[in-house]
Every structure is written in C-alpha cells, then in structure tokens.
Design brief:
The complex is a heterodimer. Chain A is of the alpha/beta class. Chain A contains 23 helices and 20 strands. The chains are: A alpha/beta, B alpha+beta.
C-alpha cells in the first residue's frame, strides 16, 4: 500500500495504541495534520506547546501509557523543551513529534528552523531526525519502545516537511532493532538472596520507595512485601500513593519537607531497602550524614543510579515489580523456615511513637485567614478518590503532606525538575486519560499564571477538572526562604491576591469561578465545585501568605537537624550563610 | 600512563557505537555535561559495517569515570564500552609536525628523525614536515626535542588503542561495569 509519510505516521501511532495526541499545528507539521482528520486518534488542541507537553506527561502519569505531544518546527519544538526536561527528570514516558523544515533547507536558517534534536539531546532519553520516510515507521516504533521500556523517558521524533509528504510503501516492522538498547529487567536471584539475608538480620529496616514502584505498577507487590515482612515504608514525592498512607506501616513522605517519622526513621535505620528511588538530595539532605548506620539494598532498573549518590551493599538491577516479587517470595520462604519475621516490635513501637508525637500540624483560627493546609485537607475529605495534580512550591508540599493517598497514579507532580506551571496542563492530560476519575489540580497562584491558558482547552475540548488555587499572593516558597534565610528581606515575591481575579478569569475561559475568603466558606465552595461535572472549575482560596511549610530540613543541612515548626527557627543573620538551593 | 596529585589519571576508553548521525555529539555531550575534559577522541569505522569505534582518553577519578561510563551505556547508539588498562593494550597515535629547519639546524632535525624512526613528508627551504607514529609517550618526547627548532604547526590524531591478545571488543565478556554492578545483574 502506498501512503505518504504523514499517513504512515498516524497508521504507526494507531498501531502503537495511541488514543490521544496533545498538540498545536503549524507550518512544518501541516502535512501531518491532514491525515489526522481521518484517523481514530483524538487530537486535543492545546493553547501552548508547553501545555501540550505537560498534558502528555499528565496522561502518561495517570494511565501508565505513553503520552504523545505534537508541535511544529522552531518555536513549536522549543516550547516542548521544558516538558521534555521534566519528563526526563521524572522518567515519564512521552513521545514528542515535531515538524522540521524540509530536508534541502535543514541547516540553512530557514523560517521557523531550530535544531531541535540538538537542543533536546541532553533532555531526552533519545531523539531522532527522520531524513527518509522509508525509516519513519520503524523510527516511531523504536521511539515508543524506548519511551516505555527500561527506565521510561521522553523521546522526540523530528520529521521534515518533505519527509511527511514523501510517498512510501506501508510496512509495519514486527521487531525493533536497537542493538545498543537492552535494559536489564530481571533481578538476579543470587542478589535477591543476599538482600533477604540483610533484611532478616536487620533490626531497624525501612522500605525507601521511589517513583520506580509506580512506573513498574508494583504497588500490590510492594504491599505484600511490606506487610508480610513487617517492613515500615516511606514513600517519596514521586511515590505518593504507592503504599496507603493510612496503613500502620506507612511513615509518609521523607525528605526536605517530609514527616518527622519518615525522615528520622531513615536516619536511624540499620537497613534501607531502596526500591526505584535515587537518593536525591531532596531526600538525603547532607549526604555525608544521611542514614549513617544503614546498610543499603538498592533496586533500580537504571544501573547508573546504583552507587551514584550512596554506595549499595546489595545492588540489584531490574524492574521494581520483578525484583519485589522475588524479594517477597524469598523473604516468605526464609521466614517460614525461621517461624516468621524477626521481632522488631521495639523499632515499630518507636516509629509509632514518632508518628504520634510529631504529626504534621497547623492551626486554623476560626476567624483568621484560610490556612492552605486547611483548604487541602477539606478538599481531601470531600474528594478522597480524586487524582491530585500539583504545581511546584509550597502548595505542592502541603498537597503531598495532607492528602492521604491510597492508590498509585492518583498523585501527579513535577518532582525532579520542579516545573512551575505543571499542574493545569498535566491535569488536562490526566483528565483526558482518566475520564472516569475526578481530577483536582492543587495549584499555586504563581504556577497558575504560567499555564492557565489550558483552561480554554479544557472548556473547548470538554475535559473538565477542578483547579484549587492556593492563592497566597506570593511566590510562596521563595518568600519562605527569604523569611528564614534572608532576614525577611522580601525581594520580588509579591504577586497580589486580587490580580488577576481568578474567579473572573475562570469565567472568561468558560469555567465556573468560585472563591473562598474565610474558613467557614471552604466546605460550601468545595461542595459547589464538586457538583459541577460538565465543565472545569477554578476555586480561588484566599490563603494566609505568612504560612510556611514544615517540617523543613534546610538545603545542605543534615536530616538530623529537622525543623518541626516556626518556633525552632534560628534566623540566619548573614545571607551568605543561607543554604544553597 | 600518567598520574597527577589529585588521584586522577588518564583512562583510555574504547566505545563501539552505531554509525548514526549525532552519535559523536551525544558521547561528547555526556562528558561535557559532567564537566570532564576529553584529552583526545578518535573516531573511525570498524570492520563491521554500520559500526564505529571511538577511542576516548580522559583524565578523571575512578568514581566519576564509572558514572560517565554508566551514562554512556545508557545512550541508545552505544553498543559496548571497554576500558583499556595500561599494559593490556597497544596504543598508537599519528602526528604531523611542521618544524623550522634552515641551514645547519636542518641536519640536526634530520638526525632526530632518524633516531625516532619517523619520516619526512615535505621539504621546503625553511621547514620540514614530519610524520610521527608511535606511542603517545614517544611522540611527546619527539615533540620536546623539535620544540627547540620552532614548531610552525602541529596536528595529532589522538590515541587509538586495541586490547592485547586474541579477543575483540565484542568478545570481551561484558561491557565495562562499575564496582558491584556485575553482581547486580
């Protein structure tokens, strides 16, 4: 069958099981947008390519499938740079398809030309420039294979306009030929036995669960391992929802703004069982004083993560699900031989006491301004089953702290790159991928204004979700650092409560706009928002700008020096002594 | 192989890659992104069609080298990486050097060429252009001597190397692995 490159592109996308593409057309991608009309694939017309990229990410987070974004050459591709970098840092499987100027003028500074494969080389797992349509289909096949297997990540395919128009004979390659790409997915059994020996010898073990467990869809397997082994669990920012927060073995989130019990459990542990986690600086704090007594079992599908920040006593390269299943089987077998898990009642009692004595806390004065934590907690009480998407900053930390997660893929955020503006487009993508679920973006007022245009997409494409703006009139996290470490010298962090009028802006985009100004408004506003199902809702929660995120381990400090609340703050006199971000 | 006070030493890495556009940029970019200077890099086709071999010499500590090698292994176009330990590999480099050689100095330059068994490729009234092949150490020694006469210009290929013995890069068991990683798989 003779087809054009553009037709072959969509036939290949259909073969890959693509249901939705997020994108914006333009000159160099025009030929590809024509066969789209006849394709089964739905295209969601975004308002900015960055929005399309984050929407593809949100879709991938929520569904576990590969998200697809499409854009034209030059500025179109350049606007995908941030989502690609975000997806690289957080191992999100997306494929970006960009138009390119025709091959004869590539390198000629043609109109809307940018060397997008060159630009995105360090921020993609891999990228391709397709110079001949006869290679297009196998390239698309390879792109999806690379994006979804091994450690997932973003792949970009750049297709010059003449290649989209070139006529070829359709052929679907059954095999992917990538001689240099053979990810190790099966964990080594000898190493698994070594790991189980360490677990059984351990008095104070902690399961340090990272995003890899979500990526591997291994939450059920993790649950069995934790429960049968009586192993307490911390879930990192990337892994919220991998283990139910209400379980007695759950310690919550570790790290810079983690719960006291989670942070301290890792510090005092004699064994860390890291599953799909990468010992990120936000988790470890000062590396040299992190978990000083702990031996380390490190399970990761990416060999480059093992030993990168912390030496592993037992390294295991493999897919988290495969390794967890093997760990569980071996642990169960050995425990049956010795009559059950070792007695760790003292350790579990200590953890229980830490949880009880140092819970997350805040105070909501009945007459005072709304505390962000209160708004988030009330949202949770009304919509426990929702998928929660957040931006980056204080609201992200509060959302992660105060939402009680029980299911994987119900928490979506920008972890590694820390991309402000992630929430609204990612919520759009999540809602498109999971129309059966309620999607709530918990966003900051600073973040909201970076990508709010995708509310228009939500209205016109009928993909509704709720956005809760934690409006504290500031770039709150920066303000917090200036308060703590720069003698309250506030520099360029004030945004205003009133500008824009978020409720009116929502209405202008065809959404329902609501506002809560006092604590007693909060429940009614949330109920009103949840009663709307046919379009998106924006709630403007006018929050207290002075509220800060605690606990806090200042950047570069030891996790032993966790600050539990404002009363423990020792102001930094000299800004040069402020922690390095 | 040289060493300096920081515990850094020169490492020779042989990288088998698919001959695809951008592969050199990907490899070089990885070194640059981690702040490493590449001492030399030589690329050329192998006996297998579609595959090229890069020989990279880099001065770096053992631990960051392991990290870079792991990252290199993640590049889709990289087939295999081995580190060639000094003594276990034969190493050669080619250089072309144009040196001033007028009047009585000419005989002295030719004498040095004779001692080093290197060839003269081009002769003018004022200069000699010399082809030098050998170990990097030999070429360095030759250059030191020629420097006295005045070097007009110099081009070096960078080091290429093959492991001693029967095995080719494809046969050398596994890729270069970091400590513990062999056990990890």
């Amino acid at each position: 069958m003779k087809v054009t490159g553009a037709q072959a592109l969509f036939m290949a996308l259909e073969r890959e099981g693509v249901e939705i593409v997020f994108g914006i057309p333009g000159g160099a991608i025009l030929p590809a947008y024509d066969p789209l009309i006849d394709s089964k694939i739905r295209h969601v017309l975004c308002r900015h390519e960055q929005g399309a990229g984050h929407a593809a990410e949100g879709y991938a987070w929520a569904t576990g499938k590969v998200g697809v974004a499409m854009a034209t050459s030059g500025p179109g591709g350049c606007n995908l740079v941030t989502p690609l970098a975000d997806a690289k840092m957080d191992s999100v499987p997306i494929v970006a398809i960009t138009g390119q100027v025709p091959t004869p003028v590539v390198g000629n500074d043609a109109f809307q030309e940018a060397d997008i494969t060159g630009i995105t080389m360090p921020i993609t797992k891999h990228n391709f420039l397709v110079k001949d349509a006869n290679e297009l289909v196998e390239t698309i096949r390879a792109a999806f294979h690379i994006a979804r297997t091994g450690r997932p990540g973003p792949v970009l395919v750049d297709i010059p306009k003449d290649v989209q128009l070139q006529e070829i004979t359709w052929r679907w390659p059954e095999e992917v030929d990538l001689p240099g790409y053979k990810p190790t997915t099966k964990g080594n059994l000898k190493q698994v036995r070594e790991a189980v020996k360490l677990i059984l010898a351990s008095e104070r073990p902690v399961l340090y669960v990272g995003g890899g467990v979500i990526k591997a869809d291994a939450a059920k397997e993790l649950y069995r391992l934790a429960v049968d082994g009586r192993l307490p669990v911390v879930t990192t920012l990337m892994a919220r929802g991998a283990f139910p927060d209400d379980h007695e073995l759950a310690l919550g989130m570790p790290g810079m703004h983690g719960c006291y019990a989670a942070v301290t459990a890792m510090q005092k542990a004699d064994l860390l069982i890291a599953l799909g986690a990468r010992f990120d600086d936000r988790v470890t704090g000062q590396l040299s004083t992190f978990a000083p007594e702990a031996k380390v079992i490190h399970v990761d599908i990416d060999p480059a993560e093992i030993g990168k920040n912390r030496a592993a006593d037992v390294p295991i390269v493999g897919d988290a699900k495969d390794v967890i299943v093997k760990l569980h089987a071996e642990l169960k077998r050995r425990q049956e031989e010795i009559g059950g898990p070792p007695d760790r009642s003292a350790w579990l009692a200590t953890l229980e006491r830490w949880k009880r004595e140092h819970p997350l806390r805040y105070e909501q004065p009945s007459d005072g301004p709304i505390k962000p934590q209160f708004a988030i907690q009330r949202l949770y009480e009304h919509a426990k089953d929702a998928i929660v998407v957040s931006g980056v900053g204080q609201h992200q930390m509060w959302a992660s702290q105060f939402w009680r997660f029980s299911e994987p893929r119900t928490w979506i955020n920008s972890g590694g790159l820390g991309t402000m503006g992630f929430a609204i487009p990612a919520a759009l993508g999540a809602a498109a991928g999971r129309p059966d679920k309620r999607v709530i973006a918990i966003d900051g007022d600073g973040c909201f204004q970076m990508t709010a245009q995708e509310l228009a997409t939500s209205t016109t494409e009928r993909i509704p979700f709720i956005t809760a703006v934690i409006n504290n009139a500031h770039l709150g996290m920066v303000r917090q650092w200036q308060e703590l470490f720069y003698e309250e010298r506030y520099s360029q962090v004030y945004l205003s409560h009133e500008v824009p009028d978020y409720a009116k802006l929502a209405e202008a985009y065809g959404c329902v706009g609501l506002r809560a100004e006092h604590p007693e408004d909060v429940d009614a506003v949330i109920e009103k928002a949840l009663s709307v199902t046919d379009r998106s809702v924006v709630i403007d929660f006018r929050c207290d700008p002075r509220e800060m995120v605690f606990p806090m381990v200042p950047a570069g400090a030891s996790n032993d020096d966790i600050i539990l609340g404002p009363e423990q703050i020792k102001p930094t006199k000299d800004p040069s002594e402020a922690p390095v971000a | 192989m040289s060493a300096n006070g920081n515990g850094k030493r020169l490492h020779t890495i042989s990288v088998l890659v698919e001959d695809k556009p951008g592969v050199l940029t990907r490899v070089a970019g990885l070194f640059a992104a981690r702040g490493f200077n590449i001492d030399s890099l030589a690329v050329g086709p192998t006996a297998e069609p579609g595959l090229s071999r890069m020989t990279i010499v880099v001065q770096v500590d053992r631990k960051p080298l392991e990290q870079v090698v792991k990252q290199l292994n993640k590049l889709i176009n990289v087939i295999k990486i081995v580190e060639l330990e000094p003594g276990e590999a034969v190493e050669r480099e080619l250089m072309l050097v144009k040196v001033r050689a007028e009047g009585e100095t000419r005989a002295r330059v030719l004498e040095i060429c004779d001692v080093f068994r290197v060839r003269v490729l081009d002769v003018t009234h004022k200069t000699l252009t010399i082809e030098g092949t050998g170990t990097p150490e030999k070429l360095q020694a030759l250059l030191e001597l020629l420097r006295d006469f005045g070097i007009v210009e110099l081009a070096r290929t960078g080091r290429i190397a093959l492991a001693r013995g029967d095995a080719g890069i494809r046969d050398r068991g596994r890729r270069l692995k970091a400590v513990g990683e062999r056990e990890a798989e």
